[in-house]
Amino acid sequence: PTSLDLAVVAGDGIGPEVVGAALEVLRAAAEGVEVRTTDHDLGAARWHRTGETLTDEDLASIRRHDAVLLGAVGDPGVPSGVLERGLLLRLRFELDHYVNLRPSVLLPGATSPLSPAVLDRGPVDFVVVREGTEGPYVGNGGALRVGTPHEIATEVSVNTAFGVERVVRDAFARAAARPRQKLTLVHKHNVLVHAGHLWRRTVEAVQQEFPDVTVDYLHVDAATIFLVTDPQRFDVVVTDNLFGDILTDLAAAVTGGIGLAASGNVNPDRTAPSMFEPVHGSAPDIAGQGVADPTATFLSVALLLEHVGLGEAAGRVQTAVVGALADRDPAAARPGTRAVTDAVLARLGA
Amino acid sequence: PTSLDLAVVAGDGIGPEVVGAALEVLRAAAEGVEVRTTDHDLGAARWHRTGETLTDEDLASIRRHDAVLLGAVGDPGVPSGVLERGLLLRLRFELDHYVNLRPSVLLPGATSPLSPAVLDRGPVDFVVVREGTEGPYVGNGGALRVGTPHEIATEVSVNTAFGVERVVRDAFARAAARPRQKLTLVHKHNVLVHAGHLWRRTVEAVQQEFPDVTVDYLHVDAATIFLVTDPQRFDVVVTDNLFGDILTDLAAAVTGGIGLAASGNVNPDRTAPSMFEPVHGSAPDIAGQGVADPTATFLSVALLLEHVGLGEAAGRVQTAVVGALADRDPAAARPGTRAVTDAVLARLGA
Ligand SMILES: CC(C)[C@H](C(=O)O)[C@@H](O)C(=O)O
Ligand SMILES: CC(C)[C@H](C(=O)O)[C@@H](O)C(=O)O
User: Fold this and answer.
1) What residue of B is the nearest CA neighbor of A222?
2) Domain assignment present for A59
3) Could you tell me which residue ranges the Isopropylmalate dehydrogenase-like domain spans (chains A, B) (predicted)?
4) Is residue A153 assigned to a domain?
5) Which listed ligand is nearest to B262 at the C-alpha?
């Protein structure tokens, strides 16, 4: 493509800072591509002002773009769940982002909380394919007799063959394209027997199409153990929406912190734009100070560029970010947003 | 008490080995107490032979005891879910084990996968109070059109004010009795809004009864991050059945592995016997070789003794186990079941 129409949701807190930096990097890497951006004022500020989270008009406008770049939304003044359910998850569900892609790579220059005894065993490089449109995130459930001693609250995890199969097939395809060709299903099928067995049977069925991919299974509790004792065992992980949420935060911590963790909310069928965002939140405590690390957003931009068919530009961003990170002096004070951005821009020759 | 009637479920795999060792330790520590044990043949072997998981007679017999000591059940020949739902969880539900107690202490001699930079910050010593009778573990849900492209599988998390309040109050009482007096609620109330808000409101309400306890909240994904970057921040954690399952395996890994992790399935109202078991499973791959580490079962015995009012004996077991572990040479080969047991028995003067 020679042009790129981006819907930008900078959001709240450090969102605008990291998104601003990321757009500089994106433009530098995508030289020759006409990049047009449309700002979408969504998040806590908008909600405080108007009470709106995401209107039909917002959604229609976003749909007209090639992709969405999101910073972070939220502030402590918004009741829990309002923006998560009303904006973030609504976008993922409406735009059918059934592949929530979260690479976990321990890059040179990143600081892991794991011991050398664990890390010296080899490189940590895996990707979690988290289902993004079903499971415990569907918002089914409710509450009865709220606030009384007889209150009952339910949450329903909904899992369909359609929904599980498409994400499992995507994960297999990703595994098949990687050198190790290994897929690990994470669930808890010994307790959540209905959903778990659907996932298990689906993996067994789709496996027939990918004879070279080795398949492994871990209960979610065991998976957390291996993430800290043997993260090298993972290549591609496929799991449901909630387990994926938990595992990817842990994986981010293991590979240097959520300041470095990128994610793509991908609609592989391209019936709607995909959305790319750092895994971290709006971090209101450090907002406006120029200290937010934009690296996770840069890496999200790389995922975005790859998705829209600008693979070379994606590669340039990835290489520049990895190089800049490796250059950091771990003993020195953490560089600010501007310094991190300039280091990456310099490597992009901008 | 001068006597103790124990229902023993040694189970499968390494279960009989660790339980045998643990009963030696229990008898040595509880000198002067008449310890009577009734073996209950439950688990994979029984299921293969008879197709039974837990009969009404088994349950009635177990109920007649002061406490239950369980080793581990399961082998690869039993379909997933059969023993978990039909035996383990059935016991927890029938005996109303609403407090699933899981201490996490990094003991001298244990090997953590975390780096010195994290560990040097201070001792890791917390306890997870996992709800044991509700949440996603209730077994509600089902599946429709199984095996077809139109399959739908649901899992329903059921949470009641009654169930949440009693476990939250228990956790507050435990926090109030500890020097740091800190309670962390872990949930995901920004997504699982119905269940999450019930948990949150309940903590806020019960907090009034414990003005000296500091209360903190973490989303489950963030909690996994802190477990590996700042485990010292935790004192008492209270959470639901599934989050507790996940967090306690991760916590066990952080504090030296599930070979050391003890647990109590406690009925604080004493309407039925409580059950004590190591967090690990039956490990069929190493069964019968005398290499299983019985330490987790010893520590479970300490929890058991404490629960039945034999606090001094519990303290003796705890001290002996901690001492024996500290004596281990981390560079040497891992000691076998007999050697670990003898080291603890020697410290008990037996
Ligand atoms: C903010 C929240 C809704 C979201 C999630 O749970 O998916 C976040 O934790 C994430 O991982 O992107
Ligand atoms: C075996 C399984 C049912 C059990 C659970 O999920 O509770 C186990 O993982 C545990 O933590 O005791």
Assistant:
1) B249
2) yes
3) 5-344
4) yes
5) 2
